[in-house]
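[agent] plan:
  1. take the single chain provided in the ticket
  2. run structure prediction with default settings
  3. attach structure tokens to the ticket
  4. add a short note for the reviewer (M.T.)
[agent] executing step 1
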Amino acid sequence: MAPLLTIAAGLLGEFVSDWKAKRQNQRDVERAVTENRVRMAADAQAHNNEWEMRALEGSDRWLRRFSFAAWSAPMVWAAINPTGAAEFFTVALAGLPDWYVGGYLGITGAVWGIAEMRHLGVIKR
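[agent] step 2 finished; step 3 output follows
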């Protein structure tokens, strides 16, 4: 009977030590994941701070003002003279070929996008 108790106690002790080791490994993995999330959040925060500082520097100020005016003017015009604005967009722009309007908008968007990427430091001058 005593040898059976010794074997059972040995197996039980081995099972408990394996369970403790497995649980400790799980805790280590959870701790590593948490530390990595904190590091990534700190890096993202540093990146956001850098982006905010670049945005506050205000380079390309005139491009931004022109862009705001160009996109806001039709809305102001429509508020003042709705029929004139509607006629412009339905008649004047309808006379232009679709490839021209699409190309113009694409090129304008690309120029503004590149200027913004340069402003944010993604593209070096």
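[agent] step 4 note for reviewer: Residues 2-57 form the longest helix (56 residues).
[agent] ticket updated
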